[in-house]
From TrEMBL:
The keyword Signal applies. NCBIfam families: aman2_put. Keywords: Signal. Gene3D superfamilies: 2.70.98.10, alpha-1,2-mannosidase, alpha-1,2-mannosidases domains, GH92 mannosidase domain. It comes from Talaromyces atroroseus. Residues 1-19 form the signal peptide. InterPro entries: 6-hairpin_glycosidase_sf (IPR008928), GH-type_carb-bd (IPR014718), GH92_a_mannosidase_put (IPR005887), GH92_N (IPR041371), Glyco_hydro_92 (IPR012939), PNGase (IPR050883). GO terms for cellular component: cytosol; nucleus. Residues 26-273 form the Glycosyl hydrolase family 92 N-terminal domain. This is Glycoside hydrolase family 92 protein.
Amino acid sequence: MRLNKSWPAAFLFATCARASVDPLSLVDPLIGTNNGGNVFAGANLPYGMAKAVADVNGENTGGFATDGSSVTGFSSMHDSGTGGNPSLGNFPIFPQICKDDVIDNCDFLIGSRAVSYINSSVVATPGYFALALSNGITAEMTATHHAALYKFNFQDALNGTTGTKPLVLLDLTDLWQSRQNATISIDETSGRISANGTFLPSFGSGSYESFVCVDFAGGSVNDTGIWVNNRAGTVVKDLFVTRGFNDFYLQAGGFVTFDSISANVFYARVGVSLVSTHQACRNAETEISDPASNFSQIQTSAESAWREKLSPVSVNATGVSENLQTLFWSAIYRTMMSPQNYTGENPLWNSTEPYFDSFYCIWDAFRVQYPLLTIVDPNAMSQMVRSLIDTYKYEGWMPDCRMSLCKGWTQGGSNADVVLADAFVKNLTGIDWDLAYDGLVNDAENEPLDWSVQGRGGLQSWKNLDYIPYLDFDYLGFGTNSRSISRTVEYAYNDYCVSVVGKGLGKTNATTYLSRSMNWQNIFKADQTSYINGTDTGFVGFFQPKYLNGTWGYQDPIACSPLASFCSLTDNPSETFESSVWEYQFYVPHDMSSLISTLGGADHFISRLDFYFESGIADIGNEPVFLSVYAYHYAGRPGLSTRRAHSFIPAYFNATESGLPGNDDSGAMASFTIFSQLGLFPVAGQNVYLISTPFFDSINITSPQTQKTATIRVTNFDPTYTDIYIMNATLNGEPYTKSWIGHEFFLEGQTLELTVGPNESASTWGTSADDLPPSISTATQLLV
Ligand SMILES: *[C@@H]1O[C@H](CO)[C@@H](O)[C@H](O)[C@H]1NC(C)=O
Ligand SMILES: *[C@@H]1O[C@H](CO)[C@@H](O)[C@H](O)[C@H]1NC(C)=O
Ligand SMILES: *[C@@H]1O[C@H](CO)[C@@H](O)[C@H](O)[C@H]1NC(C)=O
Ligand SMILES: *[C@@H]1O[C@H](CO)[C@@H](O)[C@H](O)[C@H]1NC(C)=O
Ligand SMILES: *[C@@H]1O[C@H](CO)[C@@H](O)[C@H](O)[C@H]1NC(C)=O
Ligand SMILES: *[C@@H]1O[C@H](CO)[C@@H](O)[C@H](O)[C@H]1NC(C)=O
Ligand SMILES: *[C@@H]1O[C@H](CO)[C@@H](O)[C@H](O)[C@H]1NC(C)=O
Ligand SMILES: *[C@@H]1O[C@H](CO)[C@@H](O)[C@H](O)[C@H]1NC(C)=O
Ligand SMILES: *[C@@H]1O[C@H](CO)[C@@H](O)[C@H](O)[C@H]1NC(C)=O
Ligand SMILES: *[C@@H]1O[C@H](CO)[C@@H](O)[C@H](O)[C@H]1NC(C)=O
Ligand SMILES: *[C@@H]1O[C@H](CO)[C@@H](O)[C@H](O)[C@H]1NC(C)=O
Ligand SMILES: *[C@@H]1O[C@H](CO)[C@@H](O)[C@H](O)[C@H]1NC(C)=O
């Protein structure tokens, strides 16, 4: 792949040391708001439920995009970086001035009211978002946990128009226009708008109810009413809408007009809830008591909350470009928008446990995002794990994806198993491990009727044949009966994770799951070749689909790679999900040693990895690629992992609006760059971080759990990233030759010093058999 991208020197050497820079000033929420990153750019608190932004009619999965499209409203709940359909965006409000103050002259419909924004006016910082519309109205917003505060300025909009009375409408819709039915009611005295509605999750099954409560300040109410299609009236103050003829989507809502507004500014306070409109109002009143005067105080609190979340980490950024610094801090910020903390807002069951939502999706986030939170915000991660276990307790299953109170579609295995194992080996506290183990065993043993939203399919075959067959005969449960290869490798690793927790808890049957974790071997076809356009790649031996009767099927090993066409659940379903056989071929995180032998030894393995990255087969825009960037460690060539990471950062991950190669997936992409820049890459589910060279001279991370500070320091640090190969290392002053380290590093506040040089082949560090990261077939570290 395009590996030799050269960078202008000025770009690399952009900044010099600055005395204690506020990391918040290096967070750019607009990264990934173009080019399919789908990042939420607006105002929110860490894990906040209220997420306020201007919604556009372009690439609006996360609400706003810097793609030149037009603003259709301002809504207060969103997801970040997701694929699937546009998520949330319920009950947008939209201010405007009606010609001659005649209400029917206003634009109510989403198509006619859309107005472009002025590119240079967009300001996005943690806890704050602002822009100017081309009609002269400017909007600023900030947020608390369950409420958004908008400040609209009409100064320029009123100049030269024939209207004087601003109107703000509320639309009974969401970004995906998934509303099934909704109710609105407007208080004619205060102008308070209350609404509720039933909507659909953007990548899942079922429906959810959403509630909102809008109050205004800064202006006196002239009149109120409702609108339906493009006509409005002031007599009626309540409305119920449902789907019309042939499911026709009726556009409707309510509005308020204002007589006079002081200083041409008025405020809209929007409380959100998933329980009731009463609770939405209470949330707003509690969190924003005085909308007309609280704005800057709320913005400041939001900034403090974010600063606090970034505070465990500090870096010596001397010589490091501002681009790479911004990439780093913005990425940490983006990992803490989701999962969202809906504790106290869960109408589905009563529990004293935390409730988190927007695990969107675990398939994306288990690999690096949740491991990052375990380091920098272990308390939050523990609450998230407890929420997964509580979801198992009340709904019978842990999710593989969850959003908007609904079950999301499972993409591969039951990857909450990996999240739990990761929490277990890293000693996250506060978790009921016996209940957790029940949930894990449930995934491994019991097939749900609908395994498209939970658990695993094909479990009879899994237990009896030891692989997931191609075109399985499975009458126990139903799901999209594809992905036999990727499900086999993921289920194998999931079972490994079950065995880790089982073993740790002293369960005698943990060994059953350990042996099932070897099932990946049963779909390896030793004589399978791979061609690209008729040219033999020269590599032999690949995973292949296998029928129930043991006969091999066939899937071109490059199918579903960027060289072929994309494969998803319903879009070109194949035996691998969203990635090729080539890519899944490297996914045996618990036994890379066996995998390397199977593929013909370390040198073959390295050639295969190189070919995969350089031929364009690797898909850097999707999560399965992450661990393969670091797979060289297992072949005793850790320096090649570092080199590979540098080939992608910043060429494919950078601090621009289109600086993500794919959906950020709630911060999954973000965390790939953070760990790469830290020089420690997690193998989720194991107490293992693969060591590479950081992108900074030094990094300190203070564990919020133990208050001890871990330090990674680079001797001979080279900010041009030529000298990136570790020559030798010390841990707490003692020589350290292993190419990996455990979570004790963070908990005990250890110091890792790496001396680097320009020549990978000149180094013997991390190359001998004893230095390799653990594999179950060659080491006992994983299960002692
Ligand atoms: C109103 O608009 C006119 C023409 O664009 C401009 O010259 C004038 O300064 C504006 N007045 C105010 C009060 O903004
Ligand atoms: C609203 O739609 C949901 C989902 O279709 C349905 O369950 C509910 O009964 C509807 N409510 C009303 C009041 O029609
Ligand atoms: C929505 O609000 C209407 C009017 O207040 C009420 O009748 C209805 O029960 C509410 N729906 C839900 C799901 O709370
Ligand atoms: C609202 O505005 C209209 C038109 O300017 C005016 O006639 C009416 O008195 C106003 N209503 C109130 C309650 O101020
Ligand atoms: C920060 O990094 C620079 C460049 O590597 C180095 O010269 C300097 O000594 C470091 N500062 C501290 C306080 O370690
Ligand atoms: C939760 O408890 C409240 C108060 O006892 C009750 O009204 C509500 O129905 C319960 N909700 C569920 C989902 O059980
Ligand atoms: C989630 O919200 C609950 C209720 O407000 C709060 O107690 C808890 O600390 C929050 N969790 C995090 C990680 O912020
Ligand atoms: C977790 O706790 C156990 C028991 O105290 C200890 O042996 C182990 O080293 C700890 N693991 C980490 C990563 O700190
Ligand atoms: C392992 O033990 C659990 C009970 O702790 C049981 O539910 C499960 O079926 C057992 N698994 C196997 C493979 O026997
Ligand atoms: C395969 O051949 C086609 C047609 O010549 C060409 O467009 C395509 O780029 C080739 N693909 C690769 C991966 O070489
Ligand atoms: C196994 O099943 C496949 C698919 O049904 C079939 O094509 C193949 O001929 C069978 N092989 C044997 C040996 O029966
Ligand atoms: C930044 O990343 C994007 C997305 O991967 C890529 O298209 C773009 O070329 C990169 N920009 C630079 C300057 O490398």
